């Protein structure tokens, strides 16, 4: 068994997409349960959806919960209290960035790392660069040759 992941988002589609991406990186070796949106299908969080996802991802190795926004943490904590009533599974709630953290956590879990190591890997994703480094360059050296602002779309 491996550490399971729960992806909590205010958007069901966002949670499902992050779970899909992380799942690809884990090559099917990790249970990744999305818990996004309200029970009515709108934007928001649902304690019931998070509880269901915790039950789905539960393993003897534990579960790491990743969140999109701070208020999702309150719903996750409420779901965790309910979960603990009938499960003896270690759970950690992470403040890692959702997408990067989920991908890194999925890879770390897929190689059999313990919950603490998976949580630490997810948290370290905060420092992953999104663009090639321009450290040590002047603004003129780092600017694109075509004179654009450098925004990448």
Summarize the structure.
The protein is about 45% helix and about 15% strand. It has about 150 residues and is an alpha/beta fold.
Could you describe the 3D structure shown?
By secondary structure, the protein is an alpha/beta fold. About 45% of the residues lie in helices and about 15% in strands. It is built from 6 helices and 4 strands; from the N terminus they run E-H-E-H-E-H-E-H-H-H. Helix 1 links the parallel strand 1 and strand 2. Helix 2 packs across helix 3. The protein starts with a strand and ends in an 11-residue tail after the last helix.
For this entry, give a set of tags.
153 residues, alpha/beta, 6 helices, 4-stranded parallel beta sheet, 4 strands, 44% helix
Write the SSE topology.
Blueprint: E1 4-9, H1 12-26, E2 32-36, H2 47-57, E3 63-67, H3 70-84, E4 91-94, H4 98-110, H5 115-124, H6 139-142
Parallel strand pairs: 1-2, 1-3, 3-4
* Annotation, overall tally of beta strands: 4
Q: What is the 3D shape?
A: globular
Oligomer: single chain
Question: What helical percentage do the residues reach?
Answer: 40-55%
Structural class: alpha/beta
Strands in their spatial order, largest beta sheet: 2-1-3-4
Topology as H/E string? EHEHEHEHHH
**Rg (C-alpha, Å):** 18 Å
Number of helices: 6
Which runs of at least 5 residues are low in confidence (pLDDT < 50)? none
């Amino acid at each position: 068994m491996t550490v399971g992941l729960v992806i909590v988002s205010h958007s069901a589609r966002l949670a499902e997409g992050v779970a899909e991406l992380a799942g690809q990186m884990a090559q099917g070796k990790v249970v990744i349960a999305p818990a996004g949106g309200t029970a009515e299908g709108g934007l928001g969080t649902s304690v019931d959806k998070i509880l269901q996802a915790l039950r789905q991802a539960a393993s003897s190795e534990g579960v790491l919960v990743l969140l999109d926004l701070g208020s999702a943490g309150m719903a996750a904590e409420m779901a965790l209290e309910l979960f603990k009533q009938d499960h003896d599974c270690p759970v950690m709630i992470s403040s890692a960035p959702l997408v990067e953290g989920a991908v890194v956590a999925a890879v770390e879990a897929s190689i059999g790392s313990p919950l603490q190591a998976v949580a630490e890997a997810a948290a370290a994703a905060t420092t992953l660069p999104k663009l090639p480094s321009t450290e040590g360059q002047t603004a003129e050296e780092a600017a694109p040759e075509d004179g654009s602002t450098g925004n990448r779309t």
